[in-house]
Specification:
Length: 202
């Protein structure tokens, strides 16, 4: 009997939120110096707050690697920053097949570029993981249809008016770029999100 396989998620949730660069700059764990850097940025890596009642902000594993990648590969119009003091940086390791990339706060102007950077990082991350898996394998007897690599990303886009939309994506890594870009375009064109913000994508 064939083994039952769960269908991969492909969900994008869009919701209006009360969030801004000032919101994060004013967090109690941010120093005055870092506050200035946060306010000058237009792409901010943000921590997870209150995860399972943890009293400290935490980041997904490899966030430092992601931040370094963005700094090294982003065009000059991108001003990246991470919302934490270096001494307080803590990673949260969740043992799951789902790659939790993290949370981002960006201005509407640079949002498409930010999506491209995140998508490229995801691509390289899975490519590196795939190469490591191949090196570790001594024999390949039978390779069934591979399950799709899945990611979770939260991207909050702040418009000039101060309105902020959060795009929460969980689904195949290959679909991240096209789905988020389509949602960004719909938002820019003033297309209604709908009463129910949960969007199940084909």
């Amino acid at each position: 009997m064939d083994k039952m396989k769960a269908e991969p998620k492909n969900v994008l949730v869009i919701e209006e939120v009360q969030e801004s660069f000032e919101t994060w700059a004013n967090q109690a764990f941010i120093s005055a110096e870092t506050r200035e850097l946060v306010l000058k940025s237009n792409l901010l890596l943000i921590p997870i707050l209150g995860f399972r009642e943890l009293p400290i902000p935490v980041f997904p594993v490899c966030t430092e690697e992601l931040f370094q990648f963005i700094k090294e590969t982003s065009p000059k119009e991108i001003v990246p920053e991470i919302c934490i003091e270096e001494k307080d940086y803590k990673e949260l390791a969740l043992h799951s097949a789902l790659l939790i990339v993290g949370g981002f706060l960006v201005t509407a102007l640079v949002a498409p570029v930010a999506v491209d950077l995140i998508a490229e990082y995801i691509k390289r991350r899975f490519l590196k993981q795939s190469e490591n898996n191949v090196k570790a394998a001594k024999e390949i007897i039978l390779q069934e249809e591979a399950e799709k690599d899945e990611v979770k990303v939260e991207l909050t886009v702040v418009e000039e008016s101060g309105k902020a939309l959060k795009f929460s994506y969980e689904g195949p890594a290959d679909d991240f770029r096209k789905n988020i870009n389509a949602a960004l375009k719909a938002s820019a064109d003033k297309m209604p999100v709908g009463e129910n913000p949960r969007k199940h994508l084909e």
